[in-house]
Amino acid sequence: MSTTTSPAVRDAASLLSRTEFDGVTATVLGNNKGMSEADARRIVEEALKFVAAAAQFPGGMRPSKTVDEGWHALILHTRVYQQLCRNLGRFVHHVPERPDPTRHDPTALERTQARIVEAGYEVDRTLWLGPSNGSVPVAASCEHAGCGDANCEANCSDAHPN
Q1: Which residue of 18, 28, 60, 142 shows the fewest CB atoms closer than 10 Å?
Q2: Nearest-angstrom CA–CA distance, 141 and 125
Q3: Domain extents for the chain?
Q4: CB-CB neighbours of 113 under 10 Å
Q5: End-to-end Cα, the chain, rounded Å
Q6: Helices and strands in the chain, H and E counts
Q7: HSE toward the beta carbon, residue 90, CA cutoff 13 A
Q8: From CA 116, how far away is CA 51, in angstroms rounded?
């Protein structure tokens, strides 16, 4: 008799030490007064998944407004972020854009989530909603645009080899 097992889901929090993860979580909490620690931890985990997937599959990925909050916090911890990207084998640059919710492209968020799953992570779908959804309110006001070209590198994540 043969049994089929699902592939193991990777643990994004393990990409950082406990101290590093707690420090990034504290930054999210500090920028978002009144947010629960549980929500801040979820946001940091989702940002780590995003960076890991962007390192593996460069180009064409966009974070949601909520996930971008975690990515911004992670980037502020420059040594942690630099080492994370080294460990992932590729530096994932943040290419900012001026906030403009009219550029929202739900297909870009769907593609990004598919890449995260392809990288071996489970997606927390409640953190990948459009910019007008305030179910998990964050201070970030970013909404990154798609460029409509599969070869376009002008996006919020521009991954380059170390």
Answers
A1: 18
A2: 19
A3: 12-161
A4: 23
A5: 46
A6: 5, 2
A7: 17
A8: 9
Cβ contact 128:65 at 8 Å: no
Tokens 């942690």, residue located: 80
Q: Indicate the DSSP class of residue 119.
A: T
More confidently predicted of 59 and 11 = 11
Tell me the C-alpha distance between 140 and 120, whole Å.
Answer: 27
Residue indicated by tokens 């297909």: 107
Name the DSSP letter for residue 132.
T
Cα 17 to the chain's mean position, in Å? 18
Does residue 41 have a pLDDT over 60?
yes
Contact call for residues 97 and 160 (beta carbons, < 8 A): no
Question: Taking phi first (over 0 means left), then psi (-120 to 50 degrees means alpha), and beta for anything else, what does residue 84 get?
Answer: alpha
Element (H, E) at 46: helix 37-56
Largest separation between any pair of C-alpha atoms in the chain: 57
Say if residue 102 is exposed, middle or buried (CB neighbours under 10 Å; 0-12, 13-18, 19+). exposed
